[in-house]
Each structure stands twice: as C-alpha cells, then as structure tokens.
Amino acid sequence: MKVALLGNPNTGKSSVFNMLTGMRQHVGNFPGVTVDKKTGILEIDGVEHTLIDFPGTYSLYPRSKDEEVVYKSLCDEKSIDYPDATIVVVDASNLERNLLFFSQVYDLQIPIVLVLNMSDIAIKQGKKIDINALQTVFPEATIVESIARIKSGKNILKETLTKLKPRKGHVFDTNIHVASSEDIEDQEQDTEKRFQKIHQLISTIEKKEEVQKERPENKWDRILVHPVFGYLIFAFILLVIFQFIYVFAAIPMDFIDAVFANLSSWLIETLPQGILSDLITQGIVPGIGGIAIFIPQIALLFFFISILEETGYLSRVVFIMDRLMRPFGLNGKSVVPLLSSVACAIPGIMSARTISDWKERMITIMVAPLMSCSARIPVYTILIAMVIPDERVFGFMNVQGLVLFGLYTLGLISALVMASIFKFFIKQKQSGFLMLEIPSYKMPRWQNIGVVVVEKVKLFVIDAGKIILAISIILWAMASFGPTERREDAVKLAKIEAKNSLLNKEETNHLISSAELENSYIGILGKTIEPVIAPLGYDWKIGISLITSFAAREVFVGSMATIYAVGDDGENNSPLIAKMKNEKRPDGSPVFSLATGVSLMIFYVFAMQCMATLAVVKRETKSWKWPMIQVGYMGVLAYLGAWTAYTLLS
Amino acid sequence: MAIIRKLKNSNFKVKMMEMGLVEGKILRVLFRAPFGGPIAIDVDGYTLSLREDEADLIFVDLKNSTD
C-alpha cells in the first residue's frame, strides 16, 4: 500500500513521519520536479507499506515548484505517486486554518486519516476539540489523536491504517469543489467558501476557554528579534557554531586521514606489484579517503542548522535578515542556503528550494558557490602553511588565521556583490514574496536532527562522492599512462642524462619518474595550458591540479599528492607540504612563492571548480544555461583576481 | 489590534487567505524587524511574518486604540 503523508508546515509532520518509519528512510525524486521525495517503510503486522512524505503546504494549490507535486500526485489518478491512502497531519492548536487543506484532500475521495497532532499544546492554550463533532463533519475520515514529538499515538495510527474507511463519495460541501491548479479565480472562491463553512463549524468543534493573552515566547522574541541584540545573538551563535565545526571536526578528520594513509601503505606492502594494486593504492583508496574526510564537517554543520530550525529560531533569523538581504536581490531565506554553502554548496543550493520567489532563488543559487566551502579548506590550509609565515601580529592575532579569515570574507563579499549584479540581469514580472509562519519555540527533537544529518551525509557521499572517486581513478590513469613512444624516448633521455651527470641510483629514479609523469597524458595536458596560466604564476604541475580540480576542489590536494607520490615512486614519505616547498623552478627559485601561493588561494576563492555543484545547479534550474553562466563568470573572476594578486606581489 | 476587512487583489491573495488572513479575523502586530524590515503579526494565536509591501495588501479596521 502507498500512503501519502500531508499537512501544513509546522504541524509536526516530520515527527509523525519519523515516528512511523524510524530510520528506514530513503530520499529520491518526484518525477519531473526537483523536490526531494522522502519515502519510508511503514511496517504493520509484518507487512511493509510505503509512506511518502510530501512537502508541507497550506492548501492543495501550488504556490511554488515545491508544492506542485502535491496537487499533481493527489489529483491525477495516473500519477506514479497517487496514493492508496492519505494521512493528513493537523495542528490541533491551530485547527481552523489546518482544516482548509484537510477539507480539500478529503474531497479527493482517497481513504483518509486525520491525525490531530500536538493536542497537548492545544490543551495548554485552553482549546478542547470535540472529536465526535469533527467526525460528523467528516464521516468518512478516521480521526486519531497523537503527540508525535513524544511518539504518542504510533500504534493507534498503525492500526487505523489496517482498517481504513472506504470512500463512498461524501464531500465536505456539495457546493464546493476543488479548483484546477491554473484557475486562480476559482481557487480564490473555493478557499473563501471553505473558510466560511469552517468558521461556522469551528464553534461546535472547538471549545475555547479564556486563557492568558500573551504567549510565553513573546518574551524570548523581545530579545531574539531585537534591533541590536537580535543581530548580536545571531552573530554570536554563528561564531560558536563555526568554532565547534573547526575544533571538533578536526579530530575525526585527522583520524580518517590517518586511517586511509595507513591503509594505503599497508596495501602497498601487502598487494603484489602491478597495475591493479597501483590502481587500488594510488587511485581508489585515496579517492574514497578524499570523500570520507568531509563527512565530519557536513554532519556537524547540519547538526547545528537543524537544531536552529527545530527550535524555531531559524525563522526569526529569516525575519531579521530579510531587510539586510533585499538590497542584494536576496531574501531572508537566502541566509540558510548561503550559510550551508560554507560547508558545501550542494546542500546549500538544494536548500534554496524554500525560497518561493523564483528570482531570489536563482540569485541565491548563482552566488552560493562563491561562499568558501569546506572543500576549499584543504586547499587553503596547505597553501597557507606553505607561503604564509606562522607569526603573530598585535601580539595575539595569528597571521595564518587572519589570511584564512580574509579568504572567507572575500568569498562572502563577492557573493553579495555578484548578487546585486544579477539582480539587474535576471528578469521577473512578479515581485518577491516572503510571507511565512513563525513557529513557536520548541525543544529540538533529537531523532529528527539525527535523520537530517544522516540524510545530508548520504547525499554528499553518494552524489558528490561518486564523481570524486571517478575523477581520482581517471586522474591516476592519466598520470600513469601516456603515448608509449614518447614516454620511452623521454625515459631513455633521462637515463643518458643521469649517466652523464653521474647521479646516484635514487636521483636517477627520481629523474626517470618525473620524465614519465611529464610525458603522461596529464603532463601533456598540463603543459598545453601552461602558457595560459603562466601569467598567474603557475607551472604545468599546478596546471594539472587546476584541471583535476574542475571535478572538485579538494582534488587539488589529492592530485598534488598523486603527482608527487607518482614522481618519487612512493618511497619518500615526507609530508606533501615539505615536498611542495622543495619544488624549484628551472632557475632555482621556489615554485610556491608568496605571489604564486596567494594567487592560487584567490583562484580557489572564485573559480567554479566543482562538477557535482554544476550537476546540482542544472538539476535545480532545469537547464544548462545557469551552470554555464556560473562557470563563465566565476572563471573570469578567478583569472582576473589571481592575475592581479600575482602581479602585485611579485 | 485590528480586524481584517478586505484583502487587496493580487497574485498572493489566495496564498494569504490560506495562511489564515481571512476577512473578519483579528490581527495584532507583535514586533517589527529593524530598518523597515518585515513585521510579525498574530492571527488566531499563530505568528506570521510579512514584508511591508505584503502588509499593504491587507485592509483593516482598527479596533479601539489598543494598537
């Protein structure tokens, strides 16, 4: 059986979903739209059913792409997601408004269950719901009370699904019909008539006692949306979150790093020599390690974001940030996608779906990759360690830390500047729309948070991971193979040269392997682009890393490691940074000078070097136009920025 | 405190109604974001945030002089 889970936003729908399915969840796609389809397995008496979690909506009529899928799936019997039964979660403390959507779904003649959720809050507010009266209005619905937050009502709800009432054609009101998704006028009339009738009925269903006028959270709101303290508190919370991410994520990241390094060297010793073991030790294992290393940061970021969301604080942030974001053509809701992009632009861009205004959503998506994501951290870290002195200024500020801060700031400022430029180029007739419900403050539900974290990590590992792994393997192959004749000639030449200059065995080997690398496919490619990147201060080895970085930025470090590891046959285990520091140009000056290092950092701040993000942008915008514009404008920024930095510093 | 008299015709009218802004409902301004940002209103015990231009679409009758 296929069961659809529906309801208004903030009704505790996701708690109901988690309560019914536990962790047996899976994220897929609704056909034709970009909305995530969350499905879960619902087991009743040993029989497995599918529960589909639809996006929260206030009515059947779509106001954004997100919501279109509700109308399409429920009103078209031929739709692939047309359910055998529906569960509509209704906020008991907010019955009147919630009944609008319920009455619409009721009229669709699908077996239906009304879940009266959060009845504890309703009682606290002095509202008592007469279930019998509600049943008289909707005779063909089964009504269940629950407090999903504390998993109350789970068994009754499951039992209800085994004995659903058949639909015999009863409708909410014979004079009211569900309008088509295009006819706005008809929708208006439908909504109006339904509300009129609900309003007449509500006094018989809901008994209100006189209760305190002011809700307790108003006290909190006085501080949290305060014109001064509101922003200070938000800034402070951000600071704390990022501190946690950097300090705590470092521990598991170092661990993962060590595990994969040890695994690699153990495999080198254990496996028989040959092409296959080279593939495993130099291509696959480092590739998987390069994916795994980002899991701690992504998990931590979403842990914090979902706490903010669960408690209701995030919508206060949207509220106070909206005015500040609007001059840049953005929306208060852009704050979340932009912040998430600091971890990874992929979930960030996907979270832009909550912005119902098309133009503001597009601008947010277009500039989100300019925010420095965690994939840039390894690049920044390695470059800073190489060219920026580990000194202090003013007695306490670490210069390396300051530079890192500067790179992040550069990303943020350029995102805002580009947003205000896009504001003039992206055209739209309708004006922006913000209106949203500010939920009441709640204690976070840890299961919900756990589910979000697992979901986001899975998305990263699967969506971005496969591309990163594939590129690692391609990279290894391109570095290990080349035109046979050319390679053999180069090796011969290197051997003669070694003999003539009386090199020892180790030096000879080094010369041979760098000759091999230079004449591999990747070396040839790197050399081809060298004239283009020479003005930025890069040589062909950096060129190789730039090419491979277009798959994903973190590959920079991986390919540097691969290039240098392949270059010295894996015998030398000194850290990558030391190897890169020792790298000399033909004239004896170091390759990684201050100018080249800074130029590279700037390049990485701006350049659109992430195939996975491009794929996501294409999926979200439904055309290659937007990702191509992104590659173009970010590439121009990167080249000009890097060139300026190199020219000024050298 | 004010009573909603009418919603001005616009593309958002249905959406505003769905969110509970219906004729005859009592609304109360709770707080405003600074610098002319959105305002938060209370309708029927829940809080909605509206931009100024969205709030302009709601015609109300003021009730007494409490707000």
Write structural notes for this entry:
The complex is a heterodimer of chains A (650) and B (67). Chain A is of the alpha/beta class and 650 residues long. In chain A, 61% of the residues lie in helices and 9% in strands. Chain A has 27 helices and twelve strands. In chain A, helix 16 crosses helix 17 (399-425), helix 19 (484-500) packs antiparallel against helix 20 and helix 25 packs antiparallel against helix 27 (625-649). Chain A is elongated and about 100 Å long. Chain A starts with a strand and ends with a helix. Chain B has 67 residues and is mainly beta. Helix content of chain B is 15%, strand content 42%. Chain B has a five-stranded antiparallel beta sheet with strand order 4-3-2-1-5. The longest helix of chain B is centred in the N-terminal third of the chain and has 6 residues, at 13-18. The radius of gyration of chain B is 11 Å and the shape is globular. The mean pLDDT of chain B is 85. Chain A binds chain B through residues 58-59, 61, 63, 93-94, 96-97, 100-101, 125, 184, 187-188, 191-192, 195, 199, 215, 218, 221-222, 225, 227, 230, 315, 318-320, 322-324, 332, 430-440, and chain B through 11-20, 22, 24, 30-31, 33-38, 40, 42, 44-51, 53-54.
Number of helices of chain B: 2
Relative helix content of chain A? 55-70%
The coarse overall form of chain B would be globular
Distance between the termini of chain A: 69 Å
| Average pLDDT score of chain B | 85
Tell me the total number of β-strands of chain A: 12
Helix content of chain B: 10-25%
Structural class of chain A: alpha/beta
Q: What strand order characterises the main sheet of chain A?
A: 2-3-4-1-5-6-8
- Rg of chain B, Cα atoms, Å: 11 Å
How confident is the prediction overall: mean pLDDT of chain A? 84
Taken in chain order, the helices and strands of chain B follow as EHEEEHE
Low-confidence stretches of chain B: none
| Main β sheet profile of chain A | 7 strands, mixed
Strand content of chain B: 35-45%
Poorly predicted ranges of chain A (pLDDT <50, ≥5 residues)?
Answer: 566-574
Euclidean distance between termini CA atoms of chain B: 5 Å
- Rounded to an integer in angstroms, the radius of gyration calculated over CA atoms of chain A is 29 Å
* Biggest sheet record of chain B: 5 strands, antiparallel
